[in-house]
TrEMBL record:
This is TIFA inhibitor. GO terms for biological process: auditory behavior; cochlea morphogenesis; craniofacial suture morphogenesis; genitalia morphogenesis; hard palate morphogenesis; hematopoietic progenitor cell differentiation; learned vocalization behavior; lipopolysaccharide-mediated signaling pathway. GO terms for molecular function: deubiquitinase activator activity. Residues 37-107 form the FHA domain. InterPro entries: FHA_dom, SMAD_FHA_dom_sf, TIFA. It comes from Otolemur garnettii (Small-eared galago).
Length: 161
């Protein structure tokens, strides 16, 4: 039996505020196929009162891939100052990335994991929210390092050579 709605199973975690950061989040939210806005402003569908969060910080945007009859999603960064990381990729203002089946997202100290379950409806999707008591992502942001430069080069043994 086919699922009528695409379901986004969203787990949320905040390291200092815990579940209190998400008191305004309903356990279930059905949404039409317009972008789902996340931020602290009045127009956001998911409102979070967090420091460093923009009024419109990011959006989950449904779309139809060419040749498909199922909704796909991308995440778009809407914040000019805040950072959004998706699966280790840092997005800047208006950059977007398609979502896969499992996605690790971080922004404003929020850790969010989105599991995408495809459904047949092209008119709406459903989000189920779970508040996690423990971290969801252990390296929440992409880190650029020069570790390879600091690795000592192996020296040939003395007397060989």
């Amino acid at each position: 039996m086919e699922k009528p709605f695409t379901v986004l199973r969203v787990s949320l975690y905040h390291p200092t505020l815990g579940p209190a950061a998400f008191t305004s989040i309903p356990p279930r939210l059905q949404h039409d196929i317009n972008p789902l806005l996340i931020g602290r402003g009045q127009g956001a569908h998911l409102r979070l009162q967090l420091p460093n969060l923009s009024r419109r910080h990011l959006s989950l945007e449904p779309y139809l891939e060419a040749g498909s009859t199922l909704l796909a999603f991308c995440l778009k960064s809407l914040s000019r100052k805040g950072c959004v990381c998706v699966n280790g990729l840092k997005l800047t203002y208006l950059e977007q990335v398609p979502l896969s089946t499992v996605n690790k997202i971080s922004f404003s100290n929020v850790q969010m994991v989105v599991h995408l379950e495809k459904g047949t409806s092209l008119e709406a999707f459903v989000c189920h929210f779970h508040l996690s008591p423990s971290p969801l992502i252990y390296r929440p942001e992409a880190e650029e390092t020069d570790d390879w430069e600091s690795i000592p080069q192996e020296q040939p043994p003395l007397g060989s050579g």
